[in-house]
Known about the structure:
The chain is of the alpha/beta class.
Amino acid sequence: MTSEVASxxxxxxxxxxxxxxxxxxxxxxxxxPKERADKLARRVLEAVHATIREENVTYAEYNALKAWxxxxxxDGEWPLxxxxxxxxxxxxxxxxxxxxxxxxxxGPYYVPxxxxxxxxxxxxxxxxxxxxxxxxxxxxxxxxxxxxxALSDAKVEIWHADDDGFYSQFAPNLPxxxxxxxxxxxxxxxxxxxxxxxxxxxxxxxGACGALIEAAGWHAWRPAHIHVKVSxxxxxxxxxxxxxxxxxxxDDDIASAVKPELLLAPQQQADGSATVAYxxxxxxx
Length: 285
Ligand code: MBD
Ligand code: FE
């Protein structure tokens, strides 16, 4: 019998394969106009050159960087590296004109087309194992437009780590869709999702991203979070994450993805479960 353990290289390879499914990299690059590719590539290179000059970067440091960049690819960790250290600024720029909900980064572990979990009233339970760890959580809310219209054809896709910090399809030995589901809201735009609270999450420390964290004396933690994508025809897709009050890493998330508007206020119940209300407001296209 083999016993698989979670490793950076395995979860990185899964995240890389998942992203490569989306579009051929050669096609994606061709979609960027030449003037734009020229300008952006030049500006990034100039920023690198300026750092080398101002910091007197040595050959030892240059060769360490070269070896490390090669290893990021070998470990499949480009999705992780980019989503942790770059995506938050792309998200900030892309959504700066929104009136509705704040969003935040998608991260490397979204999988489209998760199973539909809702009944006709928008009530559903995400797939989970018998005895799944973590505080049971009942989350209620509505999806409306910025003008107040209830969006009865909205859907809420949810995905999150388990109580050990592992995501299905990226860590071994988990059911394919564990803690991933798609909820179609009810006729009044409301939903009720049953799940469990995820644990705080450490990005993989045994690969190239972990080596950078170690070399720089950083930490690898993200606060506990629930990922969502909320969509409705004619409205801008909202990608967000929701956080829990009191988490030690809400103020120093390694991925810089926490915003005060994304903090939940769960109510602990006598039976050990928790309830929470959080609603979404979408911007028109
Ligand atoms: C995650 O779960 C995540 O949400 C991000 C942004 C990066 C790494 C792991
Ligand atoms: Fe995550």
